[in-house]
Design brief:
heterodimer; A: about 500 residues; alpha/beta; Rossmann fold; 3 domains; 7-stranded mixed β-sheet; 5-stranded parallel β-sheet; 16 helices; elongated; B: about 650 residues; mainly beta; Immunoglobulin-like; 5-stranded antiparallel β-sheet; 5-stranded mixed β-sheet; 2 helices; about 0% helix; about 45% strand; globular
Chain lengths: ~500, ~650
C-alpha cells in the first residue's frame, strides 16, 4: 500500500511538473512543444510562444497590458463562480477547463477573448496542465529543486585533473557555509542541501541534477560545461569562482558574478595609480605590457578607457610576440612612472629585467600574474602593486570566516577563495530569504536584483541593479611582502 | 457649502432630518448638542435614483453611473444624502481596464454643453493643484478620519483645508467605552466589553448608531475578513467568536474556540482566521469561507498576541514564556518557534512579512526577529512602554503608552548593527494610557505621513516623514482623542474595470466629472446632472458691500479691509452682527487666513489680514447667526503688491 501511495505521489508530482513546463515554456513533460491556434490571426503556434505564463503571469496573477486583460488563473479564482452583474459564470471544474483550453469557451458557454489560444493538447498533457493549475501560485508551486523542507543547490568543481586541489578545497569549504545557513534556521523552514558535481569529468549528458540554483561553480575556460541544463540558461548561477575577464553577458543572463571582472580590476589599477600620483607634480605617464591574446586585448582596452576618462596621456604599449626587452628599453618606456603588467610569468620577467633596481611602480592583477609575481627579488617586489578582488585587511571578516569554518572542522587556508565560496552561499541565502516561502527562480532573480550594499566577509559590497549581473566593479590594491599581502588601499571603485 | 451632519457645535446648522429624535444633553460643554440616534427599523426605503453618462477618449470608453438615495425627511423635503459614483473603464474592444490609479471629481458646470478636451485638461490640472480656489464640490479621492474620544463620543473629521466652517462632519455618542473597532466608509463597528455589546455606526444612514447585545462573553477584539464581507469578534471569557455578514447582523452566529481572551488575525486572502485562546493555551484555526473550525493547535500557556507573516505564510502566536509558536495554517501544526524573552504584549510584521516586531511593555523594548530563520535579531530599548506599532515604507512608528512620544525605527539595516529608535513628541502633554485596540496612530493614505492622537493635549498631530516635529494639527473641538481610524472614500475597484466611491450629494445641478488615470493615460470629462437639494438663495436679507477699491495693497503689513453690511431692502445699516468672520485665500494657491471682523458701528466691519506674498486674493464672509456661510455671499478680491521704492533722488 505504501508503495502504491508513494507512486501515486510521484505520479502526481510528475504530472504537476509536466504541467508547469507547459505553463511556463510551452513544452510538455517529454520536451515536445505544444501547439495552439490563434483565432485572431488564423495561425498555428507552438512552444514558448503559446506558454500560458506570457499573459497570465508567473504566479497566475494575470496581467493587464496594452488594454488586454488576462485574468488571474489561480485555482482560488477558477474554482469560484463569478456572480453578476459582470458577466457571470459558474465555477470551473476539470471538464470546463478542458473545454476552455480546446474550444475557448467559459463554463457559461461564452467565448473567451480571441487572443486566448485554442490549445491542441492530448489527454496526458491536459491532465498535467490541470494538475499544475491546482497548485499555481500557491506554496506548492515551486521550481525544481525546492521541496517543502529542502532547497537543493548544486556546484560544479574540478575534482579530478589539473585543478583538483583547488576544487577539493572549495568542495570541503562549501558544506561549512551551508551548515551556517541551516544553523541560522534555514530559509523559511527549508534547509539547504548541497550537491557537488565534477566539472572536470567531461561526461556530458550523464547528469540531470535538478538543482534550484548553482553556487560557486568553478569551471575554467578550457573545460566545456559538463553539466547540461535542462532549461538552458534558466537555472541561476551565483558567485561563479572562475575569473571572468569581462562582463559575463556571454555566460548567460542568469549568472550573477560577485567578484569584479579582470577588466574592472585593471581599470581600478589605473585609478589607484592616478590617486598615488596626485601628490607628485606632472601627470601620470603609464606604460603597459600585455599578452598578445584576446584577454590581453580586452584588459588593455579597459585600461585605455580609464586613462581617457581621467584625461591622462595615453600609455606606451608593448605587446611584441617576439622580444620584449628591446621594447622596454626604449626611451618612451624609460620615461613612464607606472607600468601596468597585464600578463604572467613572461611579462613579469621582462619587466624585472628592464628595471632591476629602481624604476616605475609595477601594477598587475593577482589573478593573471600567478606565482611568478610572488617570487620577485626585494628591490623589484617593493614596487609591485596588485589588484585583488577581496580585502586582505578585513580582520573582522577573517575572524568571522575562520569561526564559521572551524565550527565544521575546516581551516582558513586560502582566504580569498574560501571567502568567495562562502560569499556565494550567503548571497544566495539572503536572496532566498527575501523571496519568502513561495520560492521560484523568477522571485530569486528579482531578490538578487534588489540587493544593494550586501556585505560578506572579505568581499566587496555586493549590489546588482535591475538587469545587472556584476555584483561589484573595482579592486583592492595590495603590496607584496615577506608575510604575504599588505593592503595599500581600501576598495577602489571603477565606475561602470 | 455646509454639509449636513448629525450635529455640529453650532446649533442652528442642523438639517431638519437630524432634529427628529435628537436629544439635547446638557453639561457637555460649550453648549454642544449631541444626537443619540436610534433609527427605528422599518423606515420606508427612499427610492433609489440613478443617472448615467458616457464618453470615449483615446480608445478608452468611460461610463459613469451615479446612484443615490434622495433623502426625504419628515416634512417630505428633499435632503442631501449619500450617493455612489461607479466609473467603468473599458478599451474600445470592451476589455475592462483593471488596476488603474484613478482620480475623479465633480465640479459644478459653468456653461452648457460638455467640456472640450482642452477645457477638460485645464479643469483637471486646476483640481490637481489642490488650491482652495479650485476646489470641486465633490472630491472622489478623499478620506476621512474617525476619532474615538475619551468621553465615548465618535467624531468624523475631514482633514483637508476647505471652505467649511468646521472640519467635523459628524459626532455621535456611544453608550460605553470601546475596546477595539473597525472602521471604513460604510460602517464603524465598536466593541463595548463592559456592556457585552457592540455598537454599529451606519455611515450610509447618516451615522446612525445601533447597539446590540451579543450574549455571554465580553466582546473585545475585532477583525474584518479582508475578502469576504464579514465581521468577527472575539468573546473574551467565553470560548467563542461571533461572526456576521456586514450589514446583516441577523446572520450572526457563534463559533467555538478555546477559553480565555482572544486576538483574531486573518490571512490576506481570507482563507484562514486564527484566534488565540489565552486560558486554553491554544490557537483556533477557522476556515474563512466555510466558517468551520479546522483545529485547535496547542501552543503554550497564556497565548494571546497574534500576527501573520506574508513572507513565511505562517501565523505567529506568543506565549507567556516568550516563545512564539509558528503555525502553518494548511497543516494546522506548530512548524517552528522563535525564542524571545517573556512579556510580549503584541506582535506585528513590517510590510512584506520578513521582519517581526514583539512589543514588550514591561521591558520597555521592542524585539525584532527574522521570520526567514525564526531567529531574534535585536532588542531595541525604548523610552517608554510600547502599545501600538504602525508601518510606513521605511519606518516603524511605535507609540509609547501614557506619553506624547512616538519612537521611530528605520526598517533599513534591521539585520546588522545597532538600531536606535529616534523619538518625536506628538504634543506637549502625555496622553493617558489606554487599551491597545484604541489605536492613537494611523498612517495617512499617501504613505509617508502619520496622524497621531494625543488625548492629553486634545489634539491630533500630522507628522510628515523626514521631519522631527509634527507638521500640522487637527482640532478635536474640545474632546480628547483616544484612537484614530482612516475612512477611505476614494475610488476603489470593486469589479474588474469598475471603480466606485461614495460622496455627499451637493446642490442640485449639472456637474462636469473630470477623470484622470495614468498608464494608460486617460483624461476625460463627463457631464451629469445630480438631483440634490435646491440651492437656497441665501443672503438672509443682507447686502455686503466691500469698501476697498481696486488699488493694490501692500505686502507684509496688516491692511484694514472694511465691509458695509446693510439690509437688502431699504439699505439700512446692520450694526448688531457680532460673529462675522472673513476668509482670505490665495487665488490661485492654497494659502488662507481667517479672522473675526470688528464692528466699527454704522454697519461697517473691519478685518486686518496680513498678506505675506504678492498676488491676487479672494475674500468672503460668514455670519453664523444669520446662517450665512462662506459660499453663500459673493466673493470680492484684492491684489497685493510689493511696494515700489521711490527713487533715491
Amino acid at each position: 500500500m505504501l508503495l502504491l501511495a508513494a507512486s501515486v505521489e510521484a505520479g502526481r508530482d510528475g504530472l504537476e511538473s509536466a504541467g508547469r513546463r507547459i505553463y511556463r515554456n510551452g513544452v510538455n513533460g517529454e520536451g515536445r512543444a505544444v501547439t495552439a491556434d490563434l483565432v485572431m490571426t488564423g495561425t498555428r503556434l507552438s512552444g514558448v510562444g503559446v506558454a500560458c505564463r506570457n499573459c497570465h503571469g508567473d504566479g497566475g496573477e494575470g496581467s493587464a497590458e496594452s488594454g488586454l486583460t488576462a485574468p488571474a488563473l489561480t485555482w482560488a479564482r477558477l474554482a469560484q463562480p463569478r456572480p453578476a452583474p459582470i458577466p457571470a459564470r459558474p465555477a470551473y471544474g476539470d471538464a470546463e477547463l478542458r473545454r476552455a483550453l480546446a474550444e475557448g469557451k467559459d463554463p457559461a458557454g461564452r467565448l473567451l477573448h480571441p487572443a486566448m489560444p485554442r490549445y491542441r493538447l492530448d489527454r496526458r498533457d491536459a491532465d498535467g496542465l490541470l494538475a499544475y493549475l491546482r497548485i499555481l501560485g500557491t506554496e506548492r508551486d515551486t521550481d525544481p529543486g525546492v521541496d517543502p523542507d529542502v532547497i537543493r543547490v548544486g556546484t560544479a568543481l574540478p575534482l579530478t585533473g589539473e585543478r583538483a586541489a583547488t576544487g577539493r578545497l572549495v568542495q570541503d569549504t562549501l558544506p561549512a557555509c551551508v551548515a551556517r545557513v541551516n544553523g541560522d534556521g534555514g530559509v523559511f523552514g527549508r534547509r539547504l542541501e548541497l550537491r557537488v558535481f565534477d566539472s572536470a569529468s567531461g561526461r556530458a549528458g550523464q547528469v540531470q541534477p535538478e538543482v534550484f540554483a548553482w553556487l560557486a561553480r568553478f569551471e575554467s575556460d578550457a573545460a566545456p560545461a559538463a553539466i547540461p541544463e535542462p532549461e538552458a540558461g534558466r537555472i541561476p548561477s551565483i558567485g561563479p569562482l572562475a575569473d571572468m575577464t569581462m562582463a559575463p553577458e556571454q555566460s548567460g543572463a542568469s549568472t550573477f558574478a560577485l567578484l569584479p571582472t579582470l577588466a574592472d580590476q585593471a581599470a581600478a589599477l589605473v585609478r589607484f595609480a592616478a590617486a598615488e600620483n596626485a601628490a607628485r607634480t606632472g601627470s601620470l605617464r603609464l606604460g603597459l605590457i600585455r599578452t598578445p591574446d584576446r584577454q590581453g586585448e580586452v584588459l588593455a582596452a579597459a585600461v585605455l578607457e580609464q586613462v581617457r576618462r581621467l584625461e591622462l596621456p595615453d600609455p606606451v604599449v608593448a605587446t611584441a610576440e617576439t622580444a620584449l626587452a628591446p621594447a622596454l628599453s626604449s626611451p618612451d618606456f624609460k620615461a613612464v612612472n607606472a607600468m601596468v603588467v597585464l600578463g604572467g610569468a613572461r611579462e613579469w620577467s621582462a619587466v624585472s629585467a628592464a628595471w632591476p633596481d629602481s624604476g616605475p611602480l609595477l601594477l598587475g592583477l593577482l589573478t593573471t600574474s600567478g606565482r611568478a609575481v610572488l617570487a620577485l627579488p626585494p628591490p623589484i617586489a617593493a614596487r609591485v602593486r596588485l589588484a585583488v578582488p577581496f580585502a586582505v585587511d578585513d580582520a573582522a571578516g577573517i575572524d568571522a570566516l575562520s569561526a564559521e569554518l572551524r565550527a565544521e572542522g575546516m581551516a582558513l587556508s586560502n582566504p580569498g577563495l574560501q571567502a568567495a565560496a562562502c560569499g556565494a552561499v550567503q548571497v544566495f541565502a539572503e536572496a532566498a530569504r527575501r523571496s519568502g516561502r513561495r520560492l521560484t527562480r523568477a522571485r530569486l532573480v528579482d531578490a538578487l536584483e534588489s540587493l544593494q550594499d550586501f556585505h560578506s566577509p572579505l568581499l566587496p559590497a555586493i549590489g546588482f541593479a535591475k538587469g545587472g549581473r556584476n555584483g561589484s566593479a573595482g579592486a583592492y590594491v595590495v603590496a607584496v611582502g615577506q608575510g604575504g599581502f599588505q593592503a595599500r588601499s581600501g576598495w577602489v571603485e571603477s565606475p561602470r | 457649502m455646509t454639509l449636513p451632519s448629525i450635529a455640529s457645535y453650532c446649533g442652528p446648522n442642523w438639517p431638519r432630518r437630524a432634529r427628529v429624535g435628537a436629544v439635547a444633553a446638557a453639561g457637555f460643554g460649550r453648549g454642544a448638542l449631541l444626537a443619540l440616534m436610534l433609527l427605528p427599523l422599518g423606515l420606508p426605503a427612499a427610492p433609489e435614483r440613478s443617472v448615467t453618462a458616457q464618453t470615449q477618449r483615446d480608445g478608452v470608453a468611460l461610463e459613469l453611473q451615479v446612484r443615490g438615495r434622495a433623502g426625504a425627511d419628515q416634512d417630505g423635503e428633499a435632503g442631501a444624502g449619500e450617493a455612489t459614483a461607479r466609473l467603468a473603464l473599458r478599451t474600445a474592444q470592451g476589455q475592462p481596464l483593471s488596476g488603474l490609479q484613478l482620480r475623479a471629481w465633480m465640479s459644478r458646470s459653468r456653461g452648457t454643453g460638455g467640456l472640450g478636451q482642452e477645457d477638460c485638461g485645464r479643469l483637471t490640472k486646476g483640481l490637481l493643484s489642490g488650491a482652495l480656489s479650485r476646489r470641486a464640490e465633490v472630491d472622489l479621492n478623499s478620506f476621512r478620519l474617525a476619532v474615538l474620544n475619551e468621553d465615548d463620543s465618535l467624531a468624523i473629521l475631514d482633514p483637508r483645508v476647505s471652505f467649511k466652517a468646521s472640519q467635523m462632519e459628524a459626532l455621535v455618542q456611544l453608550p460605553g467605552r470601546a475596546a477595539d473597532w473597525l472602521a471604513d466608509d460604510t460602517e464603524i463597528v465598536l466593541t463595548l466589553p463592559e456592556r457585552s455589546e457592540v455598537a454599529i455606526v451606519d455611515r450610509s444612514r447618516g451615522n446612525a448608531v445601533r447597539t446590540l447585545a451579543l450574549g455571554p462573553g465580553r466582546p473585545t477584539r475585532i477583525a474584518a475578513d479582508p475578502v469576504g464581507r464579514r465581521v468577527w469578534i472575539g468573546l473574551d471569557e467565553a470560548a467563542e467568536v461571533v461572526v456576521w455578514e456586514r450589514g446583516r447582523i441577523d446572520t450572526r452566529r457563534r463559533i467555538g474556540t478555546g477559553p480565555g481572551r482572544h486576538q483574531l488575525v486573518f490571512t490576506p486572502d481570507g482563507r484562514y482566521l486564527a484566534v488565540t485562546n489565552s486560558v486554553g493555551g491554544s490557537v483556533s484555526l477557522i476556515d474563512g469561507r466555510s466558517l468551520a473550525k479546522r483545529a485547535d493547535v496547542a501552543t503554550g500557556p497564556d497565548t494571546l498576541p497574534l500576527a501573520y507573516s506574508e513572507a513565511s505564510g505562517r501565523f505567529y502566536a506568543a506565549t507567556a514564556s516568550g516563545s512564539v509558536a509558528v503555525i502553518d495554517p494548511e497543516s494546522a501544526e506548530v512548524s517552528a518557534s522563535v525564542a524571545l524573552e517573556p512579556g510580549i504584549d503584541a506582535l506585528a510584521f513590517a510590510p512584506g512579512g520578513r521582519y517581526g516586531f514583539a512589543l514588550q511593555g514591561e521591558r520597555r523594548q521592542v524585539t525584532v526577529f527574522d521570520s526567514a530563520g525564526n531567529r531574534p535579531l535585536k532588542r531595541v530599548p525604548l523610552e517608554g512602554q510600547p502599545d501600538q506599532i504602525v508601518f510606513s515604507r521605511e519606518f516603524a512608528y511605535i507609540h509609547l503608552a501614557g506619553s506624547e512620544k512616538v519612537a521611530l525605527l528605520s526598517l533599513d539595516q534591521l539585520e546588522h548593527g545597532q538600531s536606535v529608535a529616534t523619538v518625536f513628541s506628538a504634543g506637549q502633554r502625555p496622553a493617558p494610557a489606554d487599551a491597545p485596540g484604541a489605536g492613537p496612530l494611523v498612517q495617512a493614505p499617501d504613505g509617508d505621513a502619520l496622524f497621531a492622537a494625543n488625548g492629553g493635549d486634545g489634539t491630533i498631530y500630522y507628522y510628515l516623514e523626514g521631519m522631527m516635529a509634527p507638521a500640522g494639527t487637527l482640532a478635536t473641538y474640545g474632546r480628547r482623542p483616544r484612537g484614530l481610524r482612516l475612512l477611505d472614500r476614494s475610488l476603489h475597484e470593486i469589479e474588474p474595470g469598475v471603480y466606485a466611491a461614495s460622496f455627499q450629494v451637493p446642490v442640485d445641478g449639472d456637474y462636469d466629472v473630470p477623470v484622470l488615470a495614468e498608464s494608460p493615460r486617460v483624461n476625460a470629462c463627463l457631464r451629469v446632472h445630480l438631483d440634490g437639494p435646491k440651492p437656497a438663495v441665501k443672503t438672509a436679507g443682507l447686502q455686503v458691500t466691500p469698501l476697498f477699491g481696486a488699488a493694490p495693497l501692500t505686502v507684509g503689513e496688516p491692511v484694514p479691509l472694511r465691509f458695509r453690511i446693510t439690509e437688502a431692502a431699504g439699505g439700512k445699516p446692520v450694526s448688531d452682527i457680532a460673529d462675522c468672520q472673513v476668509l482670505a485665500f490665495a487665488a490661485p494657491g492654497s494659502w488662507q487666513w481667517r479672522g473675526r471682523a470688528e464692528a466699527l458701528g454704522g454697519g461697517i466691519y473691519e478685518v486686518r489680514p496680513r498678506f505675506r506674498q504678492p498676488g491676487r486674493y479672494g475674500l468672503t464672509l460668514r455670519i453664523p447667526s444669520r446662517r450665512l456661510d462662506y459660499t453663500d455671499l459673493p466673493r470680492s478680491s484684492v491684489v497685493v503688491e510689493v511696494p515700489v521704492r521711490a527713487a533715491a533722488r
